[in-house]
Structures are given as C-alpha cells and as structure tokens.
Structure to design on (306 residues):
C-alpha cells in the first residue's frame, strides 16, 4: 500500500473545504488533479472517502475516521514546526559534557558560567566521571564534549588545548617537621630521602593523572602502609591539609593554600613535565551546533584571560 503525504494533504484540504474547487484554489493545483489524487488515495485504501454532489463533497463514515487521524497528524506537524522555529529563535539545544570532578570544579565551571549566560536556553548535562570514562564516552558518541588531559593518541578525537598544568607535591609544615623528627635527622636530608619515608597521597591507579605521574616516579619499593590512594584530587588536598602525608596534586588547584601557607610545595624527587588539558570531541560533538558554540565560547574566554 502506498502512503504518500501529499495525497493525505490533498484529502485533508478537500475535506476541510468541502469543495473540490475551493481546495484547488487553496493548493494552487487544478481541479482534475485534486480529483485524481483523491481517487488514487481511495484506491490505495480500498474504500470510498467522499460522497460527491452538486454542492461539493462530504465525507463518508470511513472518510470521517481517516480525517480525524489526518487532522491530528497535521496538527502535530504544525506544532513540531512551531517548536523548531522557537528553538531556532531562542538558540535552544542540548550539550552533554564529560569531566572529572576535579576538572569540573577548578576548570569547567568558569567556562560554563559564561556559556550559560550567553546561551540561557541550551540544556546542559554534565557527567562527572574519570577521564578514561570520558574518553570512552566520546569515542562511543555518548557525549558531545569532554574536558581531559591531552591524550597520548588522539584516535578519533579532536583535542583543543586550554592551558598547561603542572603536577606538584605538597604537604604542611607540621607534617614535614614531624617527619624529620621521626627520621631522627641530624642534618638536612635529600628530598628523595624525605619522599622515601613519607606517606604519599596519590590518585588511584585507574586515574589518567596517576598513570602520567607513575611514568616518572618509581613507587615499586613503596610500602602499602605509606601509600594512600583516593578517587578525587579534592580528597588528596584535604588529606594533605590535615597532616596525613605528601600529596601529588595540580599546582593551580592548590594556589590558594600555597599562598596562605596552609600547604607548602616540595621539590619533586624527579622532574615531572607539565602537560596540557583541554576540550575534546568526537563525531557527535563535531556535528552538534551547541558543542561548536561552546568550543568557540571557551576559546574566546581563554584568549580574554591571556
């Protein structure tokens, strides 16, 4: 059975007008074309839709049944068109972002604040998850944009760097002084010696930041009772603030604590190069206008901060 939207549109118009001539004028086609289309639809459906008379056309019982459904269908189409028009005028859309809890708090929020102010009608969803999960979601097309550290291999992803970050080791003065007492230091010891006796506060091994740091640190000889792992950097910072050990964190995220003296920075036992963080998107994000607008907004915001 052939279903042609144009045939239903002609049927709907003729039924609404109650006259073939009036329908032809409204549709800007000839009366014979109207009659032929109605006959074709009746043939397709195997029923009679109209009763013809000298005064025009009227619907049969079957025609009335079809008309109610077609009327509702065209009303739904008009509503959809109106919603699309309003969405275009308001700049509506949906943007999904994946980000770790730490990067969300310290990096993403300022960019989101600016973007929401400029695009108040775009619906935004944020998935707080590990960077590894964010990359996987980007590759699967489950999210539009991810805020991550620069991956070793881009694969199918496009990466837009924001800035460089530096991994550092921090602790409190009191922890460091008590550590030295426990080591019974009679003279200044090397930083390597201090790290070998301290409790280290690190992200868990599944975290990409931990994996990056592990490339430069040799932790094979570290005893389990001198290593505390956490799922978020915020926890590491809090652990360090209450004298639990030496935490490996990102310098930008403890700027306030370092400036106030609540935490002090220690020289790393080995040099850890800086690394870049930025926004990444896959095929889904590249085709989403809201994602393109967000990336443009973040680029402008980053330039303004420089």
């Amino acid at each position: 059975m052939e279903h042609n939207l144009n045939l239903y549109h002609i049927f709907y118009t003729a039924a609404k007008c109650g006259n073939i001539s009036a329908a032809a004028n409204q549709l800007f086609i000839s009366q014979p074309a109207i009659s032929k289309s109605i006959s074709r639809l009746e043939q397709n459906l195997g029923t009679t839709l109209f009763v013809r008379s000298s005064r025009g056309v009227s619907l049969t019982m079957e025609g009335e049944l079809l008309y109610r459904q077609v009327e509702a269908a065209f009303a739904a189409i008009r509503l959809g068109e109106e919603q699309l028009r309003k969405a275009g005028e308001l700049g509506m859309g949906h943007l999904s972002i994946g980000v770790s809890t730490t990067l969300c708090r310290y990096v993403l929020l300022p960019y989101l604040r600016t973007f929401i102010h400029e695009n108040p009608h775009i619906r935004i969803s944020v998935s707080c998850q590990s960077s590894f999960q964010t990359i996987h979601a980007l590759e699967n097309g489950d999210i539009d944009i991810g805020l991550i550290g620069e991956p070793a291999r881009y694969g199918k992803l496009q990466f837009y760097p924001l800035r460089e970050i530096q991994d550092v080791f921090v602790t409190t003065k009191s922890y460091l002084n008590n550590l030295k007492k426990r080591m019974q230091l009679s003279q200044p010891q090397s930083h390597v010696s201090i790290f070998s006796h301290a409790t280290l506060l690190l992200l868990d091994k599944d975290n990409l930041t931990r994996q990056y740091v592990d490339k430069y640190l040799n932790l094979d000889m570290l005893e389990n009772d001198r290593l505390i792992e956490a799922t978020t950097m915020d926890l590491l910072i809090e652990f360090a603030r209450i004298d639990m050990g030496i935490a490996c964190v990102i310098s930008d995220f403890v700027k306030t604590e370092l400036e106030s003296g609540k935490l002090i920075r220690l020289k790393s036992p080995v040099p850890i190069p800086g690394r870049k963080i930025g926004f990444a998107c896959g095929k889904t994000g590249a085709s989403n206008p809201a994602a393109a607008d967000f990336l443009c907004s973040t680029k402008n915001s980053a330039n303004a901060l420089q």
Observations:
- The CA atoms of residues 219 and 288 lie 43 Å apart.
- The chain has a mean pLDDT of 85.
- The longest strand covers residues 158-165.
- The radius of gyration is 33 Å.
